[in-house]
Each structure stands twice: as C-alpha cells, then as structure tokens.
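INTERNAL TRANSFER SHEET
From: sequence group
To: structure group
Subject: Gamma-glutamylcyclotransferase

Please process the attached sequence and return the structure record in the designated field. Keep the field labels unchanged so the import script can parse them.
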Amino acid sequence: VWIFGYGSLVWRPGFEFTSRKVGFIRGYSRRFWQGDTFHRGSEKMVEHPVTILLFDFQACTWGVAYEVRGEQIAASLEYLNMREAVLGGYDTKLVKFHPQEKDAEEPILALVYIATPQNPSYLGPASEEDIAAQIIVSSGCAGHNIEYLLRLADFMRYFCPQAEDKHLFSIEEALISILPCLYYTEESLEET
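Return from structure group:
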C-alpha cells in the first residue's frame, strides 16, 4: 500500500514504512484552508493545517509517498485513521502518484487524506495575511503552527525546487513580514 502525504506527513510520518518517494499528484492544489484544534491548535486558537482541493488537471501537489508492507499496513492505517480522520476530520481517497525519479514507471495508486468543504473543521478561503496571522498564534500538543508552515516550505525548497506552490510561499512571506513586528513589540514591553 502507498500513502501520499502533502503536509506534516512529509517530515513526520509517525509510522513505519518500507520505502518513500518524492513526487506529485495531478489535479489538486494545497491550501491552508482546514482548521484543527488538536495537533497545533486549540479551541481558542485554531491551527491552519493544509488540505488539497480538486482544481484542474494542470494543478500539482508535491509531497511524499510511503510504501507500507505486511504488518506495517494495519499499524500505519490505524495510526493515520486516528491522526488524520478522527482527530483531523480528513476523508480518504485514492489518487495517482507520480514519482519524481526520472526512470519511474507508471503512476502509483496511493491513499491520501483530504479535508473537504463538507468537513465541520473546514475554514475555507482567506487571505495569506489572515492565515499567517492565525498561524503565528496557534500551537497544540504537536507543536507550534509556525513550525508546520516553515517545515513544509523547507521541504518544497529542498526536495521539489522545480515546483511552484504560490499559496504556501505567500503565507510564509506574510508570516516573516509579521514576525519582526511581534519581536519588537515583545522587546518593547520588557523594557517598560
């Protein structure tokens, strides 16, 4: 079984796997339009993890596909069902994964977790600045929402430098432009 990750699964799968491949799926675009009050958020400060939405055939979402075999299958699916479906509100779907490798054969059928607009935690579209402002103040049991954003941006830079993810990098830019203001404000408060 292959499992495709496009958010925190790219750096923290949390399950045993046999192999992994960087690549993409077609037709979907990654968006920070899902809400979460558990992993990197709370009831007061909702986290913005990513989901993918069906756009058009030209769209691509880059990530990592993990191959799980034998006993790994049941254990990984049980873990991911809790992490992504029960706690995150995501549904499962099968997609065609295209490995980045030049000598790759046909696309691989992979399982993916997607939060749809019908999900009660779905937040929908917002400006990159508004999403960045919410990311700055959100944290939960898995860490801070800033880490989630920056690790995902780093993954894209280092493993998929040829790919564009305008939404992701616009939010990262907005976050970086806000951070100096927050640092200055905290420093000013300490001096007074």
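Handover comment: The chain has one domain: 2-187. Helices lie at 71-86, 128-136, 145-159, 166-191.
Transfer complete.
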